[in-house]
Amino acid sequence: MAQQYEIQGLSEVEEALKELPAELQARIYRALNTKAVKKFVVEPIRSAWRTSEKTVKGITVVTDKDDPTAVYGGVTASAYHLRFADRGTAERYTEKGSYRGQIVGRNKIQPIILNSVDDINKYMNDELGKEVQKILKRYIKSTEKKIAAL
User: Fold this and answer.
1) What is the per-residue pLDDT across 29-60, written as a single tens digit (0 to 9) for each?
2) How far apart are CA 128 and CA 35, in angstroms?
3) Number of folded domains in the chain?
4) Residue 31 domain-assigned?
5) Range of the domain at 78
């Protein structure tokens, strides 16, 4: 059974943002989602594993190609070996029956992701309006720079 969450003040923010173009609305929501996922999923996963810089870059936020506002956070394909370290492997044997061992999983990533849902909901309830204002200020500032450059 899926849990349902409600973000307080979201309907008011959506009503205020209706005046803006749909593309800008999507950028604002994507930026909000990215910030929350990075803060509560990506950074804790990065701090849970002592890994190389290349592997750390593989723990990131990725946007969804189908939904302009959706993002995913966690381990990407470039850090695939973390999957083995986290989830483990089955016992392995050669064709002749020699034992080659197994990797015992540490199970750190999945609990971080599952526990972050409540934190993200609380963060959105507390900071939604402030974050939208910050994003809009950045957008206005960049737009003013583009206009000044013309």
Assistant:
1) 888 889 999 999 999 998 888 888 888 888 99
2) 11
3) 1
4) yes
5) 12-149
